[in-house]
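Chapter summary example.
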Amino acid sequence: MIFKQVFDKESSTYTYLIASAEGREALIIDPVLENVEDYIKLLNQLNLKLVKVIDTHIHADHVTGAGKLRDKTKCATIMGEHTPTDAVEIKVKDEEIIQLDQLKIKAIYTPGHTSDSFSFLMDNYLFSGDTLLINGTGRTDFQNGSSTDAYNSIFNRLLKLPDETLLYPAHDYKGQTVSTIGKEKRSNPRLQVSNVNEYIDLMNNLNLKKPSKIEYNVANNLKLGI
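The structure predicted for these 226 residues follows.
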């Protein structure tokens, strides 16, 4: 397997490139529009063919590069079945398997940050989007977010994975690149609650500013950035 993690400084977004070393087929998770040419250079350097691109949800803090990658490489675009956009080619269901040569990626419906949020599990690699972050969790105060749904997604689904599962989120703001489910259980301050009501109260008092270009980004992401 080939695995690359690419960081976008402007939006603090992590994009992931996964490929089969044998068949040279590649998949990209959460691409950023401004970095599409860099992804294509990386694909060419590694002699890979991009066949699929995934967005974990409709992003509010950057514009996706999925549409541009589709137009340039003829790859298939993928999102979860609850996405509000009709522009995506393939909508996967909870527990559905995405095949990439011999690699298998399982879709996991994890609403809460947004109503369409999915995470993706490949072996012991968890790509959690904005649902579960390193020392944090995704905010739940816009795009049909729900703290109750987020609690269920995190505590009843993601934290049920083995402790050694590697956590790769869609964002980090402090330079951290990877964690594990076990480490997050022990040290993530958002997870040190005893029930859903405590989590709701915690999330209701974050007082975070909304992303500066949320309306623009969401509108463009409904069109896959095109």
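To summarize the output: The helical segments are 36-45, 66-73, 147-156, 181-187, 196-204, 214-221.
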